[in-house]
Amino acid sequence: MKALVFDVFGTVVDWRSGVARELAGYLSAIGRTDLDPFALADAWRRRYQPAMEECRSGRRPWTRLDVLHRENLEAMLADHGITGADPKDLDAVNLAWHRLDPWPDVLLGLHRLKRRFFLAPLSNGNIALLANMAKRARIPWDAVLGAEPVQAYKPQPEAYLRTAELLAMRPDEVCLVAAHNGDLRAARKAGLKTAFVARPTEHGEDQAIDLTAEEDWDVVAKDFVELAAKLEA
């Protein structure tokens, strides 16, 4: 194992809290404090997979995630009675995904892992999104990869295989770290090693999915610090 590649939304960063924070500011500015920013964050996120599926299926050419997020934001707000918004305001809200905070264990764990492994995101995010996020949060990637350079969205096998190819490594020399069992299944099927780290509040306190490892992944850890300790051992 030479490289660790990471799912980002939910595994590395707390997308729900960060997106809700940005939406709360926008809702306050337009006088719609009657709406729950966390509920809107969830509604925005629910459009994530269907939008990417349009690209995965070939019904739409590959389109970077920033564009999909921006379209989904406008549609989600319309569902909640917010129309005619200033496009510049929506562009600013859309950058919420560039300003997400890592979970508390992430930076310490990544710095320890960086001593031994090449680190990069294997995310559905695009380069600008992931680079801006890393710069703000000081995430110590060795390279910023993601869906844009491989032109594929997980769980397409190309997303995993082309990432290994970009790293000039065999798939079995690369390990995906993710908090989502489905992502790990697709990575394993593509020949990558797998590591599960649970994020039991990614979807809020009532989360009911991905609470535990559902298969015998190569490594299972409670957080990135424990992951580093297990891999160093």
How would a crystallographer describe the biggest sheet? 5 strands, parallel
* Average pLDDT figure: 97
| Quantity of strands, as a count | 5
Query: Termini separation (Å)?
Result: 13 Å
Range of helix content? 40-55%
Strand content range: 5-15%
The helix-and-strand class reads alpha/beta
Runs in which pLDDT lies below 50 for 5 or more consecutive residues are none
Q: What overall form do the CA principal axes indicate? A: globular
Q: What is the string of helix and strand elements? A: EHHHHHHEHHHEHEEH
Strand order of the largest sheet: 2-1-3-4-5
Cα-atom radius of gyration: 18 Å
- How many helices? The count is 11
Provide a descriptive summary of the structure in words.
The protein has 11 helices and 5 strands, in the order βααααααβαααβαββα. The protein has 233 residues and is α/β, with parallel strands linked by helices. It has a 5-stranded parallel β-sheet, sandwiched between helices. The mean pLDDT is 97.
List keywords for this structure.
single chain, 233 residues, alpha/beta, globular
Question: Any chance you could write out the topology, listing elements then pairs?
Answer:
Blueprint: E1 3-6, H1 15-29, H2 37-46, H3 48-56, H4 65-79, H5 87-94, H6 106-114, E2 118-121, H7 127-137, H8 147-150, H9 157-166, E3 174-178, H10 181-189, E4 193-197, E5 219-221, H11 224-232
Parallel strand pairs: 1-2, 1-3, 3-4, 4-5
Helix pairs in contact: 1-2, 6-11
